[in-house]
Design a protein that fits this description.
alpha/beta, six-stranded mixed β-sheet
Length: about 300
C-alpha cells in the first residue's frame, strides 16, 4: 500500500464548503459550527441542499442526487480549498456512485474531512482520486461543538500539520497486542467498511496498512459479525497494524475489548486500543493515506510527513 497525494494545508481566509452527504443536519448546530470555523479565520459556506430533508426517508439529508451535486460542485469549485462534512448518520453510500469522479479528479487535491458514515467516501476518495483525507470532527457534530480538545487538534492539523506529526492516544491503556508496525493509514467506521465490501470505490483489502477502526451503537454480536466477515473475506490479510478508537453506545467496554482481542489477536500484528478517535469527546483528527509508524505499547502514530502538504 502506497501513500496517497496529500492536499495543501489551509491558510487564513481559505474558503471552505460544508456539505451533508448523509443524514439531516440540525440548523442550530450547523450555525454554531460555522461560527467556530469563522473564528479560525476561515470563510465557510453552506452547500445549497445541506439543510434539506428527504420527503419520504427522514434519515436522509435530502435526495441522493442533490447531496451528490452539492459535494461535486463544491469539490470542482476552484475557489474552495476544503470540503467539510456537516455530520454523518446514513446516506453516503447511496450517493457515492452519482458523483462525477473524473471531474473531481481533474479539479485537483483539496482537504476532505468527516468520519462515521463518511467512511464510505474516505474509501472512494482513496481509490478513485488517490487522495489522502482527514478522519476527524464534523462541523455540526456535538462532540466537535462542545470539546475544545477536538477543535484544537483539528485546527492544528489544518493549519500547522507539522506540529501534530505524532498523534498520541489521550489516555493510555494496555495494548491488545504490543509492538510496532509501519504502513499507510486507512479505516473508519468498521460497519461501513464491511458494508462496502465488493462495491465500486471500495478497496479490496488492508494489506500493508495501519487500520483505524471504531463504531457506535453496535451490540457485541454485531461487531463480531462484521469483524468475522472482514476476516473470512480476506480483507484483513496482510494488515500491518491496527488502532482501535471509540465504541460509544456499544456493549460494555470489557466485553468489546474481549471481542476485539478474540477477533483481531490472531492476526499477530500490533493492536493499540482506546486511541481517542471516532465517536468520542475530544476526538483526534487522523489522516488516511499517509505513511507512518504505529507503536501499540506507547499509543502513538508517528507520521512520516505532515497530514497536509
Amino acid at each position: 500500500m502506497r501513500p496517497l497525494v496529500r492536499p495543501p494545508r489551509l491558510t487564513p481566509g481559505a474558503r471552505v464548503a460544508v456539505v451533508a452527504p448523509s443524514g439531516p443536519v440540525p440548523e442550530a448546530a450547523l450555525e454554531a459550527g460555522l461560527d467556530i470555523l469563522r473564528g479560525w479565520d476561515l470563510e465557510p459556506f453552506v452547500a445549497p441542499h445541506a439543510l434539506d430533508r428527504h420527503p419520504e426517508l427522514d434519515y436522509l439529508a435530502g435526495a441522493d442526487a442533490d447531496r451528490a451535486r452539492d459535494l461535486e460542485r463544491a469539490w470542482c469549485d476552484p475557489s474552495v480549498a476544503a470540503v467539510f462534512c456537516a455530520r454523518g448518520g446514513y446516506g453516503a453510500q447511496r450517493m457515492a456512485d452519482l458523483l462525477d469522479w473524473t471531474a473531481m479528479r481533474a479539479a485537483g487535491p483539496k482537504v476532505f474531512l468527516g468520519y462515521s458514515d463518511i467512511t464510505a467516501l474516505h474509501e472512494a476518495f482513496a481509490t478513485r482520486l488517490g487522495l489522502a483525507t482527514l478522519h476527524g470532527p464534523m462541523t455540526a457534530a456535538a462532540d466537535f461543538l462542545k470539546n475544545t480538545d477536538a477543535q484544537n487538534h483539528l485546527r492544528a492539523t489544518l493549519f500547522t500539520p507539522e506540529d501534530v506529526r505524532v498523534i498520541a492516544a489521550p489516555e493510555r491503556a494496555e495494548a491488545v497486542v504490543g509492538g510496532r508496525a509501519r504502513g499507510v493509514t486507512l479505516g473508519g467506521c468498521v460497519s461501513l467498511l464491511t458494508a462496502g465490501l465488493g462495491t465500486p470505490g471500495a478497496r479490496t483489502g488492508a494489506r500493508g496498512g495501519l487500520l483505524f477502526l471504531e463504531d457506535i451503537g453496535e451490540e457485541a454480536y454485531r461487531l463480531d459479525r462484521v469483524l468475522t466477515q472482514l476476516l473470512r473475506s480476506g480483507w484483513l490479510d496482510g494488515v500491518a497494524g491496527i488502532a482501535l478508537g471509540s465504541w460509544e453506545q456499544c456493549a460494555p467496554y470489557d466485553m468489546v475489548r474481549r471481542l476485539l482481542a478474540d477477533r483481531l489477536g490472531g492476526l499477530r500484528v500490533p493492536v493499540a486500543e482506546e486511541f481517542g478517535f471516532g465517536h468520542c469527546a475530544g476526538a483526534l483528527t487522523v489522516p488516511f493515506g499517509v505513511a507512518g509508524e504505529l507503536d501499540a505499547d506507547a499509543g502513538t502514530l508517528t507520521l512520516d510527513a505532515p497530514a497536509l502538504a
